[in-house]
Design goal:
Layout lengths: L4 E8 H13 L5 E4 L1 H6 L8 E7 L3 H12 L8
Antiparallel strand pairs: 1-3, 2-3
């Protein structure tokens, strides 16, 4: 599956890895995008320390719904 990737969550590195594992175990293709300088300097609390959790656009709605169901959130559109 190629094409546009959509950000479905913005979290710290540990949470992003957990979300990636959840989505991959449900069959979703997932990639994590992080600011390279954040990793170099070990930043975890600033915008440089945040990680974007992305999925292909055609499955973004289903991935958001899964995250909402797992977190108990009623609004799957939010980050």
């Amino acid at each position: 599956m190629t094409g546009e990737w959509v950000t479905i969550a913005i979290r710290d590195a540990i949470e992003a890895q957990l979300i990636k594992g959840l989505l991959e175990s449900s069959g979703f293709l997932v990639r994590l995008q992080a600011e390279p300088l954040g990793k170099v300097y070990g930043l975890t609390v600033s915008p440089m320390g945040m990680v974007l959790v992305q999925v292909p656009a055609p499955v973004a709605k289903q991935a958001r719904s899964l995250l909402a169901a797992e977190s108990g959130d009623a609004s799957p559109e939010g980050y």
